Amino acid sequence: MSDLLAYLPAVAALWLGCYELRLLRNGSDSPYAVRCLCRFGFCMAAAMALLAAPTMHLEWPWSPQSTHLLGREMEMAALAFLPLAVIEIGLPRPRLLTGRLHIGVTFSALVLCAVLFLSSGVRIRHGSLLAEGTGAVLLASSDTVFTGYSLWCLAVFLVPVHRFTRGLGAGALRTGLRLITASITVGLLWALWGVSAIVTMAVDNRQSAGLDPVGRMLGLCCLVLGVLGGTAGGWVSATTAVGRWLRAYRTYRALEPLWSALRAVSPGTALDLGWPSVRLFSLHRSEFALYRRVIEIRDGYLELRAFVPPDARALSDAALARFPVPPAGRAAMAEAAVIAAALESARTGPGASGDQDAVLAYPADCSVEEEAAWLVQVAEAFTVAGLVEHMRHRVGR
């Protein structure tokens, strides 16, 4: 199991590369930038697979030292595509940073890192790189070039992306870029952790041949955040829709007491749809179900207006005196009291001459969401212990 966990960073990077490849095939406004991110994902996946500890113990036609060097070179090649993506998109950046300059720096870093590594006479024993004397200095220098180049690429990518993100409004793009910013921040910590390899080589003449546990964890966090940010356009809309459905379902259930009470005294209206008291439906239909329930309560209101007692205002004032609520809830409590009185009037006698002007402060010219929010307040007030019984007693006198 631990061997499989060692390849999780490679899986995360591969997932990002495949996602960007799909975007590239489906068409993109910045195909070259997407191509850079796609290549970043695939190169980083190869690097993480090569630098995983189990890979270092496999039998290869070449030496294990070459596997380590190839993994480092692939990681540097992957990071090289991040500044190129920023340059292609056109985000603000230092004027001196051009594609040609960056490619030149990248080529020089790759060659210098490889030359220093191969000149160090490094050998591998028990999963560690060993070097002595001048070789240790050369290997530490190779690590320094690798760490410095990694920090350079990540910083050049992070600064313009962070500045661009600050000017965006809420949405999938800002969420994705924030996650990418967090990913690169963790990546900087990951690159800085490379200093530990330089220190251990200088002090003990040894360092880990693959990713050590801390480096693997930082790499995994960095790449997972990068995957979440890079794929935000796909999953943010889905999670937003699910959240909207859940809110609609909770509102739907919160309206149950008021809906049931209106339906009980108006079986001949549109409320009588033959539905059970707890409606079963798929979650993605919750918004439609809520809309139906609001319409049914609205029809119930219309039916109930004829049964509002003539002294509705006095009844609502009495309810507010008996069941005190904060100022923000007084309107909903008064409405619930009038509804309870009208329901009792409809239950006990034929059509009373309703107080058409006093009844029911039903919101007008509002959205379904605002209407539902108001009805939820009324439904919550309607379920206050003793309210319905009190109004039943007052109406029945």
From TrEMBL:
Source species, domain of life: Bacteria
Transmembrane regions listed in the UniProt entry: 6-24, 36-54, 74-91, 103-124, 136-159, 179-203, 215-243
Keywords: Membrane, Transmembrane, Transmembrane helix
InterPro entries: DUF6545, MAB_1171c-like
Name of the protein described by the UniProt record: DUF6545 domain-containing protein
Keyword Amino-acid biosynthesis (UniProt): no
Lineage: Bacteria, Bacillati, Actinomycetota, Actinomycetes, Kitasatosporales
One Pfam family hit: DUF6545
Record-annotated DUF6545 domain positions: 244-383
Key word Transmembrane helix present: yes
